[in-house]
Amino acid sequence: MSVRAILTEGGRHFVTALSIGSLTGDKVYQELFDLTTEAEMGHIALSRSADLVVVAPATADLIAKLASGLAPDLASTALLATDKPVLLAPAMNVRMWNHAATQRNVAALMADGIHVVGPNDGEMACGEFGPGRMAEPDEIADRIASLLGAETLLSGFKALVTAGPTHEPIDPVRFIANRSSGKQGYAIASALAQAGANTVLVSGPVELAPPPGVKLVKVETARQMWSACEVELPADIAVCSAAVADWRPVNAANAKLKKRDAVPNIALTENPDILAGLARHGAKRPSLVIGFAAETDDLIANAKAKLASKGCDWIIANDVSTGIMGANRNRVHLLSASGTDSWPEMSKTDVATRLVARIAEKLGKHAA
Ligand code: C5P
C-alpha cells in the first residue's frame, strides 16, 4: 500500500516534513500553491489519486472547516475535492470535543457519509481527562482495512434503497407527512455504494445532500416512490427504510382549501406498500429484501409480526419512542428467520456499515 501525506501548518509544529517523508517514501505535500511543475500533483489530482483519505489527527478546526465547506489550505482543499471515502480520527481537548459546535460539525459530517474513528476516553496532552484522545493507531489501521476491504464487497450487485418520508397532498400547499429525516436510509445507500454496489436511492423530501456515487431519484408521494422502485427492478438487494405514509387523501384539492369554509372532512385511502410489493414481486423479487420497523411499543413482537406479514427477509427494528427520528445515532435489532440480533447503540453511519457487511455475508461475499 502506498501512502501520500499532506502536512498542515499546525502539524509542522509537532513533526517535520522530513520525518513524515522518510516514513511514506514520497514527497510530503504542504502548501496549496507550492507546485513548481505541471508534472507535480495538484490538489484535485492529489485528492483523487487515493483510495481513502485519512485525517489523523483531525482537529476541531479542520473538522469545522470540512463541515462548512471551507478550503483555505491544502488539506481542507483536498478533503473538499475528494470523491473517495474519508476517515477522521478526531483528537482534541475534552471541552473542545464536547463543545456544541464540534458535536454539531461531527454530526453533520457523519450525515454526509464521512467515517469517524474515536476519539477515546483517556488522559490528554493538556493534562485533562475525558473523550478527545485520538484512537490508537491499531484501531485506525483496522478501520482503514475494513473501509478498503469493503470497497469491492458488493461490486456486481444492484441495490435499491428507499428513504425519507413521503408527502401526500391535501391541497396545493398542505400535505400529510411524518418526522423521518432520511438519515439512516442515506447512510445505508452511501455504505452500499462504497461497498461497490450499483446503488439507487429513491428518496422522499429530505434536507440531505445526495450520497456520493449513488443514483438519487427524488419523489414526493408513496405512489411515485413505488413507480420509481419498479422501474429500477431487477435488483439484488432492496432496503426499504422510507417512512412511507400509510394513507393519502382520496382527492387532493386543486385549489387551496379556505379556512373560512367548513372544517374539511379528508377521506383517506391506503397507499401501496412498497416493501411488501417488492418482497412479493414474483420473478423480479430482489434476492434480499430488508424492511424497517419503527415502533414506539412492543418493539420485537411488532417487528416479528412485520417480518411475517411483509414477506421480507430481514427487519431492522428500532424504537422510535426515544427520539431516534432525526438523530444521528441508532440502536437496532436485526430480525430474520434465524433469530434476533441486537446491536449496541452506534451512529447511523456505523449501523449502515455493519448492515452492509451482513448483506455481503448473506450474498456470499466477505471482507478481506
Ligand atoms: O407497516 P409499516 O409502515 O410499519 O412497515 C414499515 C416498513 O415497511 C418499512 O420498511 C417501510 O419502508 C415499509 N413500508 C413501505 N410502504 C408502505 C409502508 C411501509 O415500503 N406503504
Any chance you could write out the topology, listing elements then pairs?
Elements: H1 17-24, H2 43-49, E1 53-58, H3 60-68, H4 74-81, E2 86-90, H5 94-98, H6 100-111, E3 115-116, E4 120-123, E5 129-133, H7 137-150, E6 158-163, E7 168-169, E8 175-176, H8 183-194, E9 198-203, E10 215-218, H9 222-232, E11 237-240, E12 247-249, E13 268-270, H10 274-279, E14 288-295, H11 299-310, E15 314-319, E16 329-330, E17 332-336, E18 339-342, E19 346-347, H12 348-362
Parallel strand pairs: 1-2, 2-3, 6-9, 6-11, 9-10, 11-14, 14-15
Antiparallel strand pairs: 4-5, 7-8, 12-13, 15-17, 16-19, 17-18
Helix pairs in contact: 2-4, 3-6, 8-12
Describe this structure in words.
This protein is α/β, with parallel strands linked by helices. It folds into two domains: 5-150, Flavin prenyltransferase-like (Rossmann fold); 153-362, CoaB-like (Rossmann fold, 3-Layer(aba) Sandwich), CATH 3.40.50. Helix content is 32%, strand content 21%. The protein is built from twelve helices and 19 strands. It has helices at 17-24, 43-49, 60-68, 74-81, 94-98, 100-111, 137-150, 183-194, 222-232, 274-279, 299-310, 348-362, and strands at residues 53-58, 86-90, 115-116, 120-123, 129-133, 158-163, 168-169, 175-176, 198-203, 215-218, 237-240, 247-249, 268-270, 288-295, 314-319, 329-330, 332-336, 339-342, 346-347. The strands form six sheets. The chain has an eight-stranded mixed β-sheet with strand order 10-9-6-11-14-15-17-18, sandwiched between helices. Helix 11 links the parallel strand 14 and strand 15. The longest helix has 15 residues, at 348-362. The chain is globular and about 75 Å long. The two termini are 15 Å apart. The model has no long low-confidence stretch (mean pLDDT 91). The structure holds cytidine-5'-monophosphate.
